[in-house]
């Protein structure tokens, strides 16, 4: 552990990890926040390449956690230079991107499939919802926002630690594995009246265009949230939460 | 209708309306977005003090709508100078703050009560949810984010036009009117198992601290969303959507 000033190049490198292209090239992403960083250190699945923390933060790390070889004590001012947050916290970790796992729809639990969710805040919120409801797998089309985008990491409130994202050819996966498939659709069946759904995958579409046709083709059923008022739509995160809660309510009772 | 450059003072005045103090002093707030501005012009309830629009926008306004005396054709560049949006649209309206209406909990419909919701994005999302479900009244403590904050207006997606906000002494209103009162609480009764709720007011608390004690004291029942996973909490907007959907499902069936 050493206390020192950050070099210009170090600051530049960390800042560059805001961009997906740079994250892929460096094979690394950034995590901030006291609680989430401690969880990272506790899980063997994650390789922390560098840990930057204020003296106060580093002193609070429980003794049973192994610190990465590169652990750097920095001042609050230096932390502000590398942080992506408006209100920087007391630490920042540079973490290796985990290897992609093979994409299998779970047989007896719900999962989510995101068809081009664009907004990082929405993706983060959806991961947080999945984490709340014990959904372990989220499948996503290649054009969906990247989970390692700092805004997604932040909005997921640590959810990215427990919920696994699978990016890839979702239509091919649906074709090959044929899971029970519920498609969120403004004109779908009222989710309040759904009779005995089977655990399957809930598909949420793009914020503007909804679910694309080549994915909607795999619907076991389309579902919607009853609209009693005048709004044109609900936020994608809110809609995911509402649909998932009703689906889980019914299958948890069964 | 006249086409002209904006004066520095005009730009400064509009920009000042970002702050609540200035909005109260000027008795005005700002609305942006093609669709919402057209809706504003169509509703007599709103007094548009000034309308700034590009030539293209102003030409698309239906003939049956009355334009305000101060309607100004401006260039896209000038619009960017006054806009609060990252991606300015084609128009901006300065609108008079409506007079406060008296605060009565509706007898046969659901309403919401927000106890110090701080984040403008969350408030906007909640107004959008209310608008979707046909909830007409939201009561809010004085420290709740201001509905006329540009971020709230934007996130509400036009919802502020139809959902009425009532700011004031919520505990006093609850005391005097004694509505059926459901309090969102992490340790509350599972909303999936609620038996025959009566339409009433759903109370959502502050993002960090939940519902304050002097308001929780009026609970007919506390309710929660079952947590099946590991997340610490849900986003306030998402939680509102889920709870409201389950409450409405039950009372709409009855």
Automatic annotation (TrEMBL), chains A, B:
SMART domains for the chain: SpoU_sub_bind
GO BP field: methylation; RNA processing
GO MF term list: RNA binding; RNA methyltransferase activity
Domain of life: Bacteria
InterPro entries per record: Alpha/beta_knot_MTases (IPR029028), MRM3-like_sub_bind (IPR053888), Ribosomal_eL30-like_sf (IPR029064), rRNA_Methyltransferase (IPR051259), SpoU_MeTrfase (IPR001537), SpoU_subst-bd (IPR013123), tRNA_m1G_MTases_N (IPR029026)
Family, as annotated: Belongs to the class IV-like SAM-binding methyltransferase superfamily. RNA methyltransferase TrmH family.
Protein name (database record): RNA methyltransferase
Species in which this protein is naturally found: Phnomibacter ginsenosidimutans
Organism taxonomic ancestry: Bacteria, Pseudomonadati, Bacteroidota, Chitinophagia, Chitinophagales
